[in-house]
Specification:
Helix content is about 75%, strand content about 0%. It is mostly helical and about 350 residues long. α7 (about 150-160) crosses α9 and α13 (about 290-300) packs antiparallel against α14 (about 305-335).
Length: about 350
């Protein structure tokens, strides 16, 4: 590795650390000025003043804000995110428990969104101005602009209450809850590894509807971006040259134009996946999905800043990691960046 590459890597790592530090500092300050009182969440509104003051000091809220933040960073470097008021457990343990459920939901959603969004975007671009293009654009606009919680409620009403095709609230039928020992936290994978296929089918039934709703939202975004990228490429001179040489339309579209937007699409899909991981709050609330979003929402309402700060750190790390991964894939698929 050359000196310039080492220097660039050092600058990138420093930028990542400063970004995460700034994110934590901003969240910490906002958490301390919020009107919610974490002490009351612990002792209750009927506690006497001495009990309140004792818990207030135990939480370290009597210290100046810079000192509180310094202690938080010290504990963070030791891998300690504190205890959650909501559960009484360590925040790290809570995050390890709830994050796999959101990862499972978001992964299924992004697979559906990408699998549908990319072909639709390419199809619309190759038929610009025609009926098919307008239909795809309307579907994308509807999917992207309609509130996801409305989709969730309508989905439960139609596919669960009326048709009975999908599972309702939760992650699995109550009869199978706790039947499979968690290995990875991904219920479908754990059920398959344990050979519990009834649990697998039940979990899949509960997963499909919320994943499809999130997938529709990401599909709308990915298809719009794919169409835009493809239109830019299809207007280039090299596409005209390829057609003049007699190359088939399929070869022109997929072999030339699509290959040149692949790097851009990787970034779009990565960012969409990160958005699903941290933005599935509403759909998890509607479906009572025991994941990261529901945990974050409950912690915010309780004023549990240890849990909130842990969630913010996880979100920051996810986006930073996805951005770094996108940059690495840029170098793999685009030789001009090497």
């Amino acid at each position: 590795m050359t000196t310039s590459n080492v220097r660039a890597l050092g600058h990138r790592l420093l930028s990542v650390l400063l970004t995460l530090l700034g994110l934590l500092l901003l969240t910490f300050v906002i958490g301390r000025v919020m009107p919610l009182d974490p002490v009351l969440s612990i002792v209750g509104p009927d506690a006497d003043r001495s009990t309140y003051d004792q818990v207030y000091q135990q939480l370290g809220l009597d210290r100046p804000l810079p000192v509180q933040f310094g202690y938080y960073l010290r504990d963070l470097l030791q891998g300690d995110l504190g205890n959650a008021l909501l559960t009484g457990h360590k925040v790290t343990d809570d995050l390890a428990r709830v994050l796999p459920a959101t990862v499972e939901l978001a992964t299924m959603a992004i697979l559906l969104g990408t699998g549908l969004g990319v072909p639709l975007g390419v199809y619309a671009a190759t038929r610009r101005g025609r009926l098919a293009d307008h239909v795809v654009r309307v579907i994308s606009l509807f999917g992207y602009s309609t509130p996801v919680f409305w989709f969730g409620m309508m989905g439960l009403l139609v596919f669960y209450a009326w048709l009975g095709w999908a599972g309702g609230a939760g992650r699995v039928d109550l009869a199978f809850d706790g039947l499979v020992a968690p290995r990875t936290g991904l219920l479908l994978l754990d059920a398959a590894l344990a050979g519990e296929w009834e649990v697998f089918r039940s979990a899949l039934k509960f997963l499909v509807l919320p994943a499809c709703i999130l997938g529709l939202h990401s599909m709308a975004y990915i298809s719009r971006m794919t169409r835009s990228f493809m239109l830019a490429q299809l207007s280039q001179e090299y596409i005209t040259t390829a057609r003049v040489k007699g190359l088939s339309e399929r070869g022109v579209v997929w072999g030339h134009a699509f290959r040149n937007i692949l790097v851009q699409l990787l970034t779009i899909v990565a960012l969409a996946y990160g958005g699903l991981l941290e933005g599935a709050v509403l759909i998890e609330t509607v479906f009572a999905w025991p994941g990261f979003g529901q945990y974050l929402t409950s912690s915010l309402l309780l004023g549990d800043m240890n849990a909130v700060m842990g969630c913010v750190l996880v979100v920051g790390v996810i986006f930073v990691t996805l951005n770094l991964l996108s940059d690495a894939l840029y170098h793999v698929f685009d030789p001009r960046t090497r």
